[in-house]
Amino acid sequence: MVTIKQMAEMLGVSTTTISNVIHGKTKEVSKETVKRVNELIEACEYVPNINARNLAQNKSKIIGLAIKPRQSKYKKTTKDIFINELTSDIEDYVRKNGYYMMLYISEDIYEIINSVSSWNVDGLILMGMSTDDCIMLKQKFKKPMVFIDSYFDNRVVDYVNVGLDDVGGCHDITKYLIENGHKKIAYIADNCEGCDKYRYLGFRNALIESKIMISDQNFILIQSERNKLGASLEDIFNASKHFTALVCASDYYAVLIMNYLMDKGVKIPEDISIVGFDDNIYAQIVRPHLSTVHQDISEKSKVAVEKLFKMIENESLSEKNTILPTTIVIRNSVKKIAGK
Amino acid sequence: MVTIKQMAEMLGVSTTTISNVIHGKTKEVSKETVKRVNELIEACEYVPNINARNLAQNKSKIIGLAIKPRQSKYKKTTKDIFINELTSDIEDYVRKNGYYMMLYISEDIYEIINSVSSWNVDGLILMGMSTDDCIMLKQKFKKPMVFIDSYFDNRVVDYVNVGLDDVGGCHDITKYLIENGHKKIAYIADNCEGCDKYRYLGFRNALIESKIMISDQNFILIQSERNKLGASLEDIFNASKHFTALVCASDYYAVLIMNYLMDKGVKIPEDISIVGFDDNIYAQIVRPHLSTVHQDISEKSKVAVEKLFKMIENESLSEKNTILPTTIVIRNSVKKIAGK
DNA sequence: TTGAAAGCGCTAACAC
DNA sequence: GTGTTAGCGCTTTCAA
User: Fold this and answer.
1) Protein fold of A62-164+298-323
2) Is B284 near strand D, with its CB below 7 A from some atom of it?
């Protein structure tokens, strides 16, 4: 591979000159020289060494995407359709901005911090971080960061995030159930933190608003670990007899449960109604077609990347914490029942 | 951020010494010094500058994953579940080997070559390359490369690839259909190149073996472009009346078609049988459960990464072109019919 | 309009 | 055991 220095020698000019024309600073160079240099660059198939450039400029053209996988949420992080879609969308936007993306997946926040510092990434997009992680990061990493879908407690106030109206979305879909005559409704999730917690809150609000009694019984925990899932599904099958509708924290679980119940002979929505959250491909594939809460992942990625680049360019942000809206999409998994 | 040089000054030793203990070459350093250095590293929270290291060592610790998206195959490359799964699996294996992965997606092979040269990646995994691309790559990129799922014509002989028994898989599932009394069978794909071509060949072989007439009519082209898909699906619906079974080149299409037909009132498998290829999550979600050809993506990723690292370490490969096996998985989308 | 030279942080050959 | 030093390829300041 040719270097600038070699080309400089060939042409009998200085490296500065070559560098200048590479960077289009041609007003400082005579037309004649520009032409000769460009021709040589072409002929030699010169490719800049990014490492050298990064070192000299103390930057990297890398955007880090750091993900702390929720332990055992679904099986593997790599199989999580939401993360995969978000990741590839972000990569897409990053690349279109002339940067490269590097993925840092680790359960250890220190490892993440070390890696991104080592690579000297120009900015960071983060998912799955806790309040403690955020504090740590702010302390050790001094470049732009934007979080995705994060809820931090009040120990940290100043951070940039792009989230979703989890409360509203789940409220709306629950309300839709209620409007269809449902009163005995359960919420199903595999934990009660972050998004899932706020979705639960939305669910809860809707019931309370309609003066429907709510207790611990209305929250069903699904256990997604490989060896527990079967039993958990069976439990849900049994519990489901006490409800006329189920609101699931994600389409993934909605579809899993739907299929489990249907395979057991339960009719949906005749015997029980189900709704999900996300409106991903699962919701579109399953039959009956799943009614669910729609979120726009591509938009989420886009906003995150845009915010990050604004910060990198020292522009001011119109808002630190963007909450993207949700819409409910009505399909065929809910039955209208006579209020009892 | 602290540098080696700074630490050397603080301790009054040379950078070599620091560098040595960082790299565990402690046999050349006195215990005393090692201890002092380690303590300082700890205290300063020293993080190596990878760019500098890469520059000095002329390597990068980066494995490039280069993908040339098949124009308009599905909507966006980023939504392709197969690519996403493969990508994240590869990333996983690469990271476990202490390397980093960088993604290079472009329809322009020159752009890809430039990028990976620029970053000085230590090895390359490639998908979606044509014979011409391969020739170009071999000419311009002198480091280890392994291709995935590639079929090249005989202009190129020496290359490392990990593929799949596309012919066998499609042959077996077609045979299964035939054994169930089906004679009027169509193959559906959105193109007739690469994998899809070889899958078609397997399909064809199975029919010929059983002395079933085959003509152009047996190949149905599905048009996946957004504005054509609807019409294409309608065409397939009409064409399907002439067949008792459909073998689809992917689960994605199998499910799409299944749902389209079912939404039109067609009963599956009673009215028509369908099988797919891949055995991905779609096949598991859809009802009736899809009978299909199973492939192990995780294994494919693993083999590709292993081959690459062997090449990087100058070990010899037991085989250049690995063809992973397929198995057929029988579920409920095929009906046994009385031969006519 | 052009060039010399220092320096980015790290490695490694070699000398002490 | 430890230090000196010359790069790696590129950018950039400053002088000519």
Assistant:
1) Rossmann fold (3.40.50)
2) no
